[in-house]
# Entry
Amino acid sequence: MRRLPLASRVAGALLLCGALASCSSISTLFGGSDKPMPAELQPNPASMAVRQAWSAKVGAVAFPLTVTPSGSQFTVAASDGTVAVIDGTTGRDVWRASAGARVIAGAGTDGSLVAVVTDDNMLVGMADGKVLWREKLSAQAYTAPFVAGKRVFVLAADRSVSAYDGQTGRRLWSQQRPGEPLVLRQGGVLLAVGDMLVTGQGGRMTGLNPNNGSVRWDAAIASPRGTNDVERLVDLVGPVSRLGTSVCARAFQAAVGCVDASRGSVVWTRPANGGVGVSGNEDLVVGAETDGRVVAWRRDNGERSWIHDKLQHRGLTAPLLVGNSVAIGDSFGFLHVLAREDGRLVNRLATDGSAIATAPVVVGNTMVVVTRNGGIFGFVPQ
# Structure
């Protein structure tokens, strides 16, 4: 059998890694080394009481899903094109409909309009269970569309950022900057901070004018290094931790850092070898490294606060820091709850046995997780 050129094999492997969100490192894709054994689970102390309040179901999820809360509801999508708005208190559908094609990015919402991207490169706007419009994109997108101010913003795989009218889908503007040739098939950075649109383009966080796409500031969390395209891949990955104008994010396999979005200045960066985003509060920024260590950095200066090393090689999601706890999913369907102050395990919750698809989110008083098999679970503290 004829082998593909090296560049094609590398690109394919990177896309696969982003799609599965469980590759332990880029290096394991080449060289034939054995995959590390996942750490055995500790006894569950169950020292923090949490109960499963409800469960629901969508189709299988094989793309970089974003679960978007809005008030007491949240929006979720499945690979088969299903888009659902669900009540976070009961787990019941508010509405459910089809986007008309397989979904590869989503779902974004402002509480009224829902936007997803399908595998035929269509941006689809939906509301109240109906498709309102479809608009062709110039490139694939793996980051969930961001919906705000009656507009839909899209970060595409060619590193372009575009704005679309939320009522008609008409493109309003598009801005593109040069970057490295490889891109992750993984959710990137796209959010609002005040009157700015903040996005990740390569290893840089950029503040844009949402009215026309002009650049207001540009801050480097990591710079491409190395002698080949894989080593130079430093895309910012979501989710991020935003607190006021402080935005903290991860550059893939390179660094974690915080930016003051009011000035566009880097507050700190620290070397970090991870592939999923971060969460945080006023004191800490927390993320999972490629080897499964969970690390907490001080938000003010980036110094390490604690490390939890009992979940190594378990294919961790990005974490959720909420209240006194840090919740993080793994590729075996478990949700691990750690203490915020020192990272010790305080509870472990089971889902359906398939990998957790994305970082947990809080909807009202409920913590919601979604699995690759499409299981949706709502957990509440007791």
In short: Residues 1-32 have pLDDT under 50 and may be disordered. The two ends are 58 Å apart (CA to CA).
